[in-house]
Amino acid sequence: MKDISEILLKRKTIRKYLDKPVDEKLLDEILKEGCRASTTGNMQVYSIIITQDTEKKKELLPLHFNQRMVTEAPVVLTFCADFNRFNRWCILRKAVPGYDNFLSFMTAAIDALLVAQTICISAEARGLGICYLGTTTYMAHKIIGALNLPAGVVPVTTVTIGWPAEDPEQVDRLPLEAIVHKEVYHDYTDKDIEKYYHDKEQRADSLRFVSENNKETLAQVFTDVRYRKEDNVSFSKILLQVLKDQGFMNNF
Asked: How high is the pLDDT of residue 3?
């Protein structure tokens, strides 16, 4: 087991994995530790879908934009906001659940993300590598079908886990002073923005991204290529429909 400070300060996203399984006992230990994460009202309104079957991973592959780690990683975990289980318990105990609303989805989504990150830390402490897949929310409607998710359940993130087959360079982070506000939010001046983003913009990989995409600035790589407004709007509409279909927007 690694020191917690080493885990957090030296962590890297791992996208390439050895052809080596994760022992079931080890995986259970990681999941057990992860499920001790903080949760709203001790409700644990989340579920975790474990995918290890080769064919099922192939089915999930295009739903994650064909990112190879989906099939190469020995374990794929899909974390879901889940009020289905809690609602069923309430009904069996003569209680009337009132969780068919957006706030309840947010509550369950936060729960799912808290347990996901705790599981990742537990896995990394044992030398495993992890990678978050943001494609889960983009393709939630398709993942729901692939994983047989009932009403009240929405996938919010996916994590691949396995033994690292690479040691990539650690990506950058903004300086702490750019993130932390004392007592109240202190808005940024143009001078602050120039200062906080200077090192990020001058990195060799950032300059390469700008050149490869024929852009003037790194910010344009984000706005014009990686996270475009038209894509954000399109996926927002899909996700909103998913929330309606899964019963989280009944009052809207």
From this structure: 87
% of the chain exceeding 90 in pLDDT: 97
Gap between the Cα atoms of 120 and 245, Å rounded: 30
Domain boundaries, the chain: 4-168+230-245, 176-228
pLDDT in tens, 167-224: 999 999 999 999 999 999 999 999 999 999 999 999 999 999 999 999 999 999 999 9
Q: What is the CA radius of gyration of the chain?
A: 20
pLDDT of residue 1: 66
Contact status, residue 201 vs residue 217, Cβ threshold 8 Å: yes
Cα–Cα nearest to 106, from 46, 166, 194: 46
User: What was the pLDDT predicted at 179?
Assistant: 98
Query: Three-state secondary structure along the chain?
Result: CCCHHHHHHHCCCCCCECCCCCCHHHHHHHHHHHCCCCCHHHCCCEEEEEECCHHHHHHHHHHHCCCCHHHHCCEEEEEEEECHHHHHHHHHCCCCCCCCCHHHHHHHHHHHHHHHHHHHHHHHHCCCEEEEECHHHHCHHHHHHHCCCCCCEEEEEEEEEECECCCCCCCCCCCHHHHCCCCCCCCCCHHHHHHHHHHHHHCHHHHHHHHHCCCCCHHHHHHHHHCCHHHHHHHHHHHHHHHHHCCCCCCC
Cα 17 to chain centroid distance, Å, stands at 19
Fold of 4-168+230-245: NADH Oxidase (3.40.109)
Please say whether the dihedral angle defined by the alpha carbons of residues 133, 137, 138 and 143, taken in this order, is positive or negative.
positive
* Burial degree of 170 (CB within 10 A; 0-12, 13-18, 19+): exposed
